[in-house]
Design a protein that fits this description.
This protein has five helices and eleven strands. It is an alpha/beta fold and about 200 residues long. The N terminus is likely disordered.
């Protein structure tokens, strides 16, 4: 299938291709390179997070880029780390404060989240998983709209995609409600949007 106006594959087709490409890349990745990936905050991202108090991460599942590896560095620099909790199938989720020593509860769609604690927190930065991205900072997600809604709910939050470099695509179709990312961090580079 393709977008009838641009000749570009539609989002479901792009998702299937992106999953396959990511799976093959991670399967062939050197185990040491995998363990070391995403353990450091590049200086430009650290600078952008200077005034940020709460950073929303996610627990990588299957072959997703493992955002949880950034938690120790963020906590070490005084940030509160939060993880998403999927509330329903309508695309609703909230963010709950988390520390790497705290237990996680099983959530929807194979996710895991912290206990409720003091309730939801408002993130100043959202580090989001993705299936694909392009240099225009468009993000291809799983299709449930959870992060689209979170970005809209917290419009002033810094939006950072976390991905393996193989997830970059030439162009991602953007719908009117899609908010572009400010940055994408891969295992080899930090890509900043023009308006970052």
């Amino acid at each position: 299938m393709s977008d009838e106006h641009s000749g570009m594959p539609d989002k479901p087709t792009l998702r299937a291709m992106a999953r396959q490409r990511r799976r093959a890349f991670v399967a062939g990745l050197d185990p040491l390179a995998h363990r070391l990936a995403f353990k450091v905050l590049p200086s430009p991202l650290a600078r952008r997070l200077a005034d940020v108090r709460t950073v929303a991460l996610y627990m990588g599942i299957e072959d997703e880029a493992p955002a949880q590896r950034l938690a120790a560095k963020l906590i070490e620099t005084g940030r509160t780390v939060a993880l998403p909790r999927v509330i329903d199938r309508m695309g609703s989720m909230e963010f709950l404060a988390w520390h790497p020593d705290a237990p996680l509860l099983p959530g929807r769609f194979g996710t895991s989240h912290p206990e409720q604690g003091d309730g939801p927190v408002a993130p100043d930065a959202i580090i989001a998983p993705l299936l694909g991205f392009d240099r225009a900072m468009n993000r291809l997600g799983q299709g449930g709209g959870y992060y689209d809604r979170a970005f809209a709910r917290y419009p002033d939050a810094l939006r950072v995609g976390l991905a393996w470099s193989v997830q970059e695509q030439e162009a991602i179709p953007a719908d009117p409600w899609d908010l572009p990312l400010h940055m994408v961090l891969t295992e080899v580079e930090l890509i900043e949007g023009e308006e970052s």
